[in-house]
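Dear V.,

Thank you for sending over the compound details. I've combined the ligand you provided, zinc ion, with the protein sequence from our construct and run the structure prediction for the complex. I'm sharing the raw inputs here so there's no ambiguity about protonation or stereochemistry in the SMILES, which I know was a concern on your side last time.
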Amino acid sequence: MSGRTGNGQGLRRRGRSEDERSLAPRSETRSREVRVLYVACEGESTEPDYLRYLNEQFGDGDGQGRPPFRIQPVYRKNGMTPSEAVEAAGKAAAEDEAWALFDRDQHHDIPQAVKIAADSKIELAFSHPSFDLWLLLHFQAFGGAQSGSSRIVVDKLRQAKGASPFKGYDKRNDKSIKGARRDALNGREGQAVTHARSLVASCAHGRCKPAHAKTEPVGRDTEPQTAQQWMARSGHAPDCQILQRDPSTDMWRLLATLGIHPDGG
Ligand SMILES: [Zn+2]
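Below is the predicted structure of the protein with zinc ion bound, written out as C-alpha cells.
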C-alpha cells in the first residue's frame, strides 16, 4: 500500500459533451459553475451574432454580483420558423435552461410555438415586428404600430444617432452584428432595456406593466402553464394577444435575467 493509486490521473470531469467543450473558452473547472442557456434563434445571422456578443462582453461576470454565464446559440442555415426554434431549443438544452427568440414577420405558427414553449418551460423573447427593433432601442425610443413590417424600424436604425456602423444594415444581405456594430451597441444596453420596458407600459392593451414581468429562471420540470400565463412573463397582461403587441420586444428580459441590467421598477 504505498505510493499513489492513480486516482488523480483517472479523474473525469462530468457533464459536458465534446462539442460543447470545444465552444467553451474557459477552463472546465470554471465553466461548471457558469450558468448555461441554450438560446435558439429563428434567424441565422443577426441573433446568433448578438448572443456571441453578449457572451464575449458580459459572459465572464463583473466580479460585483453579476455571475458568469454562457449562451449556447442554436440556429440553422436558412433559419427556422418560431415553432422549429422552440423545438430546437428544447432538444439542444435537454433539462437545461432554454430560450427561443423569434419575430412576428409573417409567421403562421406563433400560437403553436407559444404552446410548445409553455408546455416545456422554454422562455420566449418575441419581437414585433422584428429583432431589429431591439437593436434600434439601443439608440432611440420607438413607438407606433408597424403592422408586421420592419421597414421603418430598419430605416430608423440606419439613420439613428450613434448608429453609423448600421448605415448599411440589411443591405446586400448584411445583417451581421460584428466589429463596429458591436461597439456601437456596447454601453447602450441600459437604454435599450428602458425603451423596451416602456413599450410594455404603452402597449395598446392598456393593462400591460413591465413591473409584472418575470425574469427569474424557471425549472424545466415545474408544473405546466397555459400559453397565456407563459406569455404574461413578458409583463403583458395574460389576455394581451401576442400578435397585437405591436411594437414590442421581450429581449430586455434576457438581459435582465442575466443581470446585465437591473430590471428596476
Ligand atoms: Zn400588451
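A first observation: Residues 28-257 form one domain.

Warm regards,
I. M.
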